[in-house]
Automatic annotation (TrEMBL):
One of its GO terms (biological process) is protein N-linked glycosylation. InterPro entries: Glyco_trans_34 (IPR008630), Nucleotide-diphossugar_trans (IPR029044). The keyword Heme does not apply. This is Related to Probable alpha-1,6-mannosyltransferase MNN10. Signal peptide: none annotated. The keyword Cell cycle does not apply. Belongs to the glycosyltransferase 34 family. It holds the Pfam family Glyco_transf_34. One of its GO terms (molecular function) is glycosyltransferase activity. Keywords: Glycosyltransferase, Membrane, Transferase, Transmembrane, Transmembrane helix.
Amino acid sequence: MELPSESEKHTATLTTTNSANNLTNTKFKSTHRSPLKQYKRWILILATVIFFILWISPTNFLKWLHLYNRDPKIVIILAANVGGGVLRWKSEQEWAIERLSIQNKREYAVRHGYGLTIKEMPIDKRYSHEYRESWQKVDILKQTMREFPNTEWFWWLDEETLIMEPTYSLEDHIFKRIDTIVNRTLDGFNPLEMNVDSAYVDYTTPLDMLITQDCGGFNLGSMLVRNSEWTKLLLDIWWDPVAYEQKHMLWEHREQDALESLYANEPWIREKIGFLPLRSINSFPPGACNEFSDDPRYFYKDHDFVVNMAGCNFGRDCWGEIQLYQSIYEEKNRRWYSKLFGM
C-alpha cells in the first residue's frame, strides 16, 4: 500500500480547513441574521391577521371576542315580523328588508356597546283575534324591560328604518343635548291641534319618553323610553284592554291614537313626554307626508341620523325605498380600503 505524498497531505489539509471555515461561517450567518429576516414569518402572520380584522370590520371582531357590554345602558328593540303578520305571508322582498334592517341595527349596537333584542311576532299572535297586531309594541316594551332590568334607556325602531349615521352615539346625538333639542310642550309643532298646555303639569320633572311628531300626529316608529316606574305604569294603562275595547273603532292609528288620548287627558303623562325634531331620529323619505313636500322638517337630508320608510306599505315601494337608502348608507360608510381599491 502506497503512502500519500507530501503534496497530497497538504491538499487534504487545506480542504479540511476550508470545510471547517465554511461550516463556521454558515453557523455565524445563521446566528447573526438581520432582525427583519429572523422575524419575517411572524411579521407576515401579524400583517395577515390585521388585514383580516379590517376586512371583516372591527365591530364584528370585537363581537367575536365578546368585548361588547353584556349589561348595556341602552338597548335597541327591533320587532321582526317573521310569520308575515296576521293577514298574509311575507314576500321575498319583505324578507330582504328584514335582513337589511337587522344587520343595520346589529352593526350599530356592537359599534357603540348597546344591546340589541330582536322580538319576533309570529303569525299566531296572542291578540290576533282582536286584530291588535300593532299594539304588541306596548307589550314588547313591557317584556323587554323585564328582560333587561338594569338598562337605563330603550330605543324602539320599526323594521322599515335604517340608521344612516352609524358614528352618532345616542349619548352625543340626543342625551347630552336633551335640554336644547327637546320641546316639552306642543307650542312649537302641533299637527293635531291639541291643547298646548294643561293644569297640574310640572315641566321640570325628568323626561321618561322621547318621541317625534309627523304630519299625522305622534310617531312611534323611532322612540326612546326610560326604564322607570313611571314608564311601567304608563305601559300598563296604555295596554289596558278596557280602553282598547271602548275606542279601537275610533283609533285609526291604534296604539299611537291611544297615547295621544292619554297625553291630552292625563297631566302626569304629559309632563314626562318630550318631543324631538322628527329628523333627529326619524326622517322621512319623500313619499311620506307628501302633502307637505315643501316642509323641510319632515324629509331626509344628508347627515340625518335615521330614515324611516313610514307608511311605505300603503301605495309605495318599500323595497325600492330601502334599496335607495341602503345604497346611500353604503356609499357614505365605505371603508378606506374599499375606496382605495374601488370596491
